[in-house]
Amino acid sequence: MISVGLIGKTNVGKSTFFAAATLMDVEIANRPFVTIEPNVGIAYAKKKCVHVELGVKCNPKNSLCIKDFRFIPVRLIDVAGLIPGAHEGRGLGNKFLDDLRKADVLIHVIDASGSTNEEGQPVPPGSRNPEEDLAFIETELDEWFLSIIKKDWEKFARTTDLSGKDMVEALLSKMSGVSVNRRHIIKALKLSSLENVKLMHWGEEGLRKFSHTLRVVSKPIVIAANKSDLPVSRDNIKRLQSKFKHVVPVSAESELALRRASRSGIIDYVPGEANFTILKRLDERQTKAMNYIKTNVLDVYGTTGVQDALNEAVFSALEMIAVYPVEDERKFTNRDGDVLPDVFLMEKGSTPKDLALAIHTDLGRGFLYAIDAKRRMRVGEEYLLQDNDVIKIVSSTARP
Ligand SMILES: Nc1nc2c(ncn2[C@@H]2O[C@H](COP(=O)(O)OP(=O)(O)OP(=O)(O)O)[C@@H](O)[C@H]2O)c(=O)[nH]1
User: Fold this and answer.
1) Which of 64, 107, 387, 392 meets the CB 3.0–4.6 Å disulfide criterion with 329?
2) Domain count of the chain?
């Protein structure tokens, strides 16, 4: 399962974002086993379900389908303690590093209204430039990556160069502490033009360049520009969007209110949608709250942004695609007759064999070929999976 790390300083609305993102009024019946720690919750990436395109009714098992949208579970980790100087042990020390290590992508919640200072204390709205909060996080992460790569570097570089070992393999095992994969290493080497330079010749500059690039490639950051409902946020958000990638206007408090109201049956609301329907007579306070959300958030930005931030992390920053494995390619079912039961998030560029391996190692090991159920066509190991593909795996090793 994809892990999304939630970072941000105190008082910007990180807890509100976490509460909103993990509150769904439908539970998955047989959710794949996940160890839930206090700071871990299940959130969802959302996309149109492929059942619409296929004209069938689905029977989701590992995900949810609400009003034609598939909600695909992701692990949301609340990474506490990322404050300036954290890499030197300030704050919670290294506990946050462990949480960060597990994250495939980060959502950085910032206060777009500029009403919290660098320590997270309230200041008059608009008096702080939220951009200042972006730089320190990047510095912290860069320093962390650099400290890992620098450890015993001289010896590592010499041994690897002289033994003729594969550079990618060696760097992969060296950086295993930050959970990077082979693709990240290859990309970072290329982007920092070091793929043909002996490790011994990298020098301080090369090390910095490589560890920074590796961090950017392996821990992409989505910026959740929170408190979008406050008018003072609007210009800040525009400026942030013109300067940085993956900036999503968010009102975590509005999303939390909508999900709570939906859970208690007051409104009908699908997370991430632009509208909600009032189901019951609202009291004065509720009417005021709903009007506020509509006028200050939905009418201005289209959505509250919580779901968009999760989607941006999964589908844009990580470039994941959704693939539906089935056992019967004609009926799109598993062996129990459930239609389109599961959906897997796969990296762009994955093959049917990668999908087989993601389902079960044995299935992958015995991979023979796959059938693209939509086109009713046999595809081989070289086929690149497409978003919304429905795939049957044919393997010599039966599933247990
Ligand atoms: N206007 C506005 N206020 C918000 C929004 N989201 C959160 N807040 C407020 O911001 C304050 C901080 O929210 P929290 O979620 O507790 O912030 P946090 O970053 O988790 O802070 P800590 O738990 O102290 O680390 C609270 O008063 C929230 O009500 C929002 O979308 N709009």
Assistant:
1) 392
2) 3
Flag whether pLDDT at 91 surpasses 80.
Answer: no
Using alpha carbons, list the distances in angstroms from residue 356 to 19, 115, 395: 34, 49, 9
One domain, residues 261 and 181: no
The pLDDT mean for the chain works out to 90
Q: Which atom of ligand 1 is nearest to the CA of 109?
A: 19
Q: Look up the pTM and report it.
A: 0.92
Answer whether residue 139 is part of any domain.
no
**Residue with CA at minimum distance from ligand 1 atom 23:** 15
Q: Is the CB of 296 under 6 A from ligand 1?
A: no
Q: Answer yes or no: is the C-beta of 7 below 6 A from any ligand 1 atom.
A: no
Cα 158 to ligand 1 centre (Å):
50
Query: Are both 333 and 372 inside the same structural domain?
Result: yes
Q: How far is the CA of 9 from the centre of ligand 1 (A)?
A: 11
Q: Is the CB of 51 under 6 A from ligand 1?
A: no
End position of a domain, from candidates 217, 241, 269 = 217
Q: Is the CB of 226 under 6 A from ligand 1?
A: yes
Query: What pLDDT is recorded for position 58?
Result: 97
User: How far apart are the CA of 168 and the centre of ligand 1, in A?
Assistant: 43
* Binding site membership of 11 for ligand 1 (Cβ less than 6 Å): yes
Domain boundary among 167, 194, 217: 217
pLDDT tens-digit readout, 26-83: 554 444 444 456 688 999 999 999 999 999 999 999 999 999 999 999 999 998 766 6
Query: Is 66 found in the same domain as 208?
Result: no
| In a domain? residue 137 | no
Q: Are residues 311 and 252 in the same domain?
A: yes
- Identify whether the C-beta of residue 311 lies closer than 8 Å to the C-beta of residue 22: no
Q: Is 121 in the pocket of ligand 1 (CB under 6 A)?
A: no
Distance 16 CA to ligand 1 centre (A): 6
Give the domain extent around 198: 151-217
Residues 165 and 296 in one domain: no
Q: Is residue 178 part of a domain?
A: yes
> Over 70: is that where the pLDDT of 387 sits?
yes
| ipTM of predicted complex | 0.97
